[in-house]
């Protein structure tokens, strides 16, 4: 009896299955990174609120001592660092809504003006 020859490459189905598994692993890693970033943003927001409240309370003092002024500066620096961290948040629709619609509006006007100029020239 003759044994069938083994192909040197795995069948196409195996390649697709491996590709799918690799893509699935990549999606899982991306989701884990997104979840971690979300948790970091939530922690930073809580810390920012706490620092702002502490800053408010300390600034209400009638006679700030040098220690209080130093603490106020330190809190202000921490708030600035947190703002930088939070600015790198994922975009929200509210933050890009206006530029998006302006691009659509003026891009559309450009296309219409181009059609008019082309029809006039042609």
UniProtKB/TrEMBL annotation:
<protein>
    <recommendedName>
        <fullName>DUF2203 domain-containing protein</fullName>
    </recommendedName>
</protein>
<keyword id="KW-0175">Coiled coil</keyword>
<feature type="coiled-coil region">
    <location>
        <begin position="17"/>
        <end position="51"/>
    </location>
</feature>
């Amino acid at each position: 009896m003759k044994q069938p020859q083994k192909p040197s490459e795995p069948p196409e189905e195996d390649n697709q299955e491996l590709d799918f598994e690799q893509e699935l692993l990549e999606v899982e890693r991306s989701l884990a990174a997104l979840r971690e970033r979300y948790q970091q943003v939530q922690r930073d927001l809580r810390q920012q609120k706490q620092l702002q409240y502490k800053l408010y309370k300390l600034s209400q003092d009638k006679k700030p001592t040098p220690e209080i002024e130093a603490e106020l500066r330190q809190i202000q620096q921490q708030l600035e660092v947190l703002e930088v961290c939070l600015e790198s948040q994922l975009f929200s629709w509210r933050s890009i809504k206006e530029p998006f619609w302006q691009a659509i509006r003026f891009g559309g006007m450009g296309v219409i003006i181009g059609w008019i100029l082309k029809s006039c020239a042609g």
